[in-house]
Amino acid sequence: MNQEVPSLPVYPVGVGTPTHGSAGPQKEGGSKGARAKQRAGIDEMTFFGVNWSDYYGILGSGLLVTVEFTVVSFVGAVILGGLLAICRVQKSIFLRWPSAIYVELLKNVPLLTWLFLIYFGLPSVGILLPSFIAGAIALILFYAAYLGEIFRGGLEGVEVGQSEAAQAMGLTGFQMYWFVVLPQAIRRSLAGTGTMLVDLLKATSLLVTIAAGELLTQGQVITSITFKALAVYGVIGLLYFALCYPTSQAVLWFERRLRSGKPLSIKRRRWLAHARSLQST
């Protein structure tokens, strides 16, 4: 029994069956997709094997917390260090000895130990502190000891004749310190103070041990996701350099400006300009 073979339908050119001309739109669509991928690659900022555009928020948060730790801790350390320095130069042993014991105790125990004592040790006696407060307290207490010694050196570097002249003019003890002693002591202490500021900024990286949310902690988070430790910590190091180097250069510029004798406040500049105008007349 013969079986009829169905005949294939005949289509006009360009209808129903693909022709050679239909390959053109496919190639064009492929080229558009390639260009879109290239643009996406530029926007995604993928280098060192890490798509950094996915972690802008994490890195920005880490930078902000690092700066917050630095500002809060440095201001607190300057205030406490100034009080320690004033106590160290007093004649009363009730002020001089406790401040000296504090300085020696804080200087000769590592910062990480104090951090652990505050964050992990105090909860055992019922004092539970958030990571930010615990980290800031540890940095303040530790760096106040060093700044206190720097300020003490600046105070003792002021000649005794300056204080005697201030007393002869009838200035009170507060006025003598505020208008005569402190301005000269600040000029002498600025270099060491700037060094401590940069060192404190770098020391915020130790707060990774208490997951304080600073830059290095965020680097750990990114590393746990990408498993690119070399790339991630290399970028974290560059970010710390981008913070520390301009800060050190700004402090150096400020120090040079003070040593040159140029007044910083607008009021003192006006006084100086007025005095020069009187001399010229």
Describe the structure.
The structure is a single chain. With 281 residues, this protein is mostly helical. It has ten helices and two strands; from the N terminus they run H-E-E-H-H-H-H-H-H-H-H-H. The chain has helices at residues 23-44, 56-88, 93-107, 111-121, 131-156, 160-168, 173-203, 215-226, 229-259, 266-280, and strands spanning 46-47, 50-51. Strand 1 (46-47) and strand 2 (50-51) form a beta hairpin. It is flat, with a radius of gyration of 33 Å. The N and C termini lie far apart (134 Å).
Short description:
The chain is 73% helix and 1% strand. The protein has 281 residues and is an all-alpha fold. Helix 4 (111-121) packs antiparallel against helix 5 (131-156).
Structural shape: flat
Widest sheet: strand order? 1-2
CATH superfamily assignment of the domain at 52-229 and 242-258?
A: MetI-like
Strand segment count:
2
CATH architecture descriptor name of the domain at 52-229 and 242-258: Orthogonal Bundle
Percent of residues in helices comes to over 70%
> Percent of residues in beta strands?
under 5%
CATH topology name of the domain at 52-229 and 242-258, in short, is MetI-like fold
User: Radius of gyration from the CA trace?
Assistant: 33 Å
**What does the average pLDDT come to?**
80
Biggest sheet descriptor:
2 strands, antiparallel
CATH class category label of the domain at 52-229 and 242-258: Mainly Alpha
Gap between N and C termini: 134 Å
> Which structural class do you get from the secondary structure elements?
mainly alpha
By DSSP (H or I, 4+ residues per run), the number of helices equals: 10
